[in-house]
Amino acid sequence: EDLGMKHRLWVYSGRRGVHCWVCDDAVRKWSPALRAAAVEYLTLVKKISFLEWPHRAVWRCAGSGGRVCAGGVGSAVSTISLDRRPQHREPLQGEFPKKRDSVQRWELLKCRMERTRVSGWTGKSAVCYADWEIMLQYCFPRLDINVSKGVGHLLKSPFSVHPKTGRISVPLDRQRLDQFSPFAVPTMSSLCHELDAAGDDGEQEDVGETEPKRRARDYKKTSLAPYVRVFEQFVEEMERARRGELLRRS
């Protein structure tokens, strides 16, 4: 959004990662230097430290209402380093063992890291962002710069099969991300079973139908159908935008 990219398709890799396919005409014509600059804009250094007001992109990720880094950070609380704030380190180390799990330790840490209120983006008061630093350090997405900057880099297409897990690389519905589970993604074996079952039903219904035509229709009876629909909606949206742009130019 910060860089004006409108047509973005998010695709699960089939294992641990997520791919963002940016399909804007102008962006697809970017040089490797521009592509690298875009990825660097979205990259944070390994060791996060805020000595001044955070960048607005970081503010959205970890700050008010941000969800990118809010979940899953509890498991890292027991290994955090508070070298820059020794006044907090010793009391926390003494109280952490008394807590039942990492979630309780995280709540304890947040209570201790009270911030000084500032007004606007130009405030000069000292502000404590230790919890943000920890969230970003452990949970901010790690981007592969080579995939984005190299025009000739090999890419996994949507709906390809991950060679190690067998899971299908499926598009993600951004409106239902909270319901997505990588363990529920269709695999090659599960789709084969579903297609076999759909084929048996189809033979009973339409005996005279040709095999290729029946197979082309049967995928809609499998667990892959919702993901195909997400992809179709993305393509349809791009087509509408392109027609609107051609009309505007004419």
Automatic annotation (TrEMBL):
It comes from the Eukaryota. InterPro entries: DNA_primase_S. This is DNA primase AEP. One of its GO terms (molecular function) is DNA-directed RNA polymerase activity. Residues 198-209 have a biased composition (Acidic residues). It catalyses: ssDNA + n NTP = ssDNA/pppN(pN)n-1 hybrid + (n-1) diphosphate. Transmembrane segments: none annotated. One of its GO terms (biological process) is DNA replication, synthesis of primer. Belongs to the eukaryotic-type primase small subunit family. SUPFAM superfamilies: Prim-pol domain. It comes from Charadrius vociferus. It is an enzyme of class 2 (transferase).
